[in-house]
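Researcher: Let's try something more involved. This one mixes different molecule types, so please make sure each is placed in the same coordinate frame as the others.
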Amino acid sequence: MMKSMIIIPTYNEKDNIEKLLPYIVGLNLGLYITIVDDNSPDGTGDAADKLAGIYPGVHVIHRPHKAGLGTAYIEGFRYALSENMDYIFEMDADFSHHPKYLVNMLEAIKDADLIIGSRYYEGVRVDGWRFRRLLMSKFANIFASYMIILPVWDFTSGFKCFRREVLEKIDFSRITSDGYAFQIEMTTHTYRYGFTIKEVPIIFYGRISGDSKMSRRIVWEAFWTVIRMRSPLIEILKHFKFFFKDYSEFVNRK
Ligand SMILES: Nc1nc2c(ncn2[C@@H]2O[C@H](COP(=O)(O)OP(=O)(O)OP(=O)(O)O)[C@@H](O)[C@H]2O)c(=O)[nH]1
Ligand SMILES: [Mg+2]
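Model: All components are placed in one shared frame. Result:
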């Protein structure tokens, strides 16, 4: 029997986790859950401790202050590996990532190394976002897939399932970013180590309750991360070899 753990980073998500945890437990998938809370002022940490007292398999990591999503995940990953988990999920606390998709993702991870719960695979499935935000997210993902040359539609998705081997391979000390950039880094490292990535379509629901932690800084961080992770020139040339080949055939015919 494979062991799976969901890592949920939280900052001011008290109401959300009080609904989310019972929902996940109710799915009866035998999933372990680890919440990484950054001493949320709204008391998410205490609420999480109470839930851990009620539901077996729930663990809470308390950090002294808000230190960013990236380091929260890394701490959660280290814990999951130390607990001998086979499959490790990333998931937001705010119901943007509906737990009903955990079933599909658990099924799909059986023949892939990373599953991405994807908003943009074969279409666009985002509910409740202002058009400007959707446009920015979609554009960022197109930009990332062209610059990094990686056939993935949703780079910035924070709904993922990793096989433990992937997390064992990735050197966390090389991962420096926080926001969407953290997701871009994780996806790119996974791909470059030769692991297989599969996207499972999900409908993404924009946050209904609680406050957003999105900021201009997070968007810029993502932009510079794509520039930093871009494929080297040789990869770009390989990418265009079909174009050159066709062109030379065209020239030779004449
Ligand atoms: N532990 C921890 N969790 C965080 C931090 N920043 C964000 N989170 C959590 O990470 C998840 C994703 O953050 P969100 O604020 O939903 O970011 P988003 O989905 O880009 O934006 P909105 O949903 O519009 O707010 C949520 O569960 C947050 O509570 C942080 O610094 N530390
Ligand atoms: Mg969110």
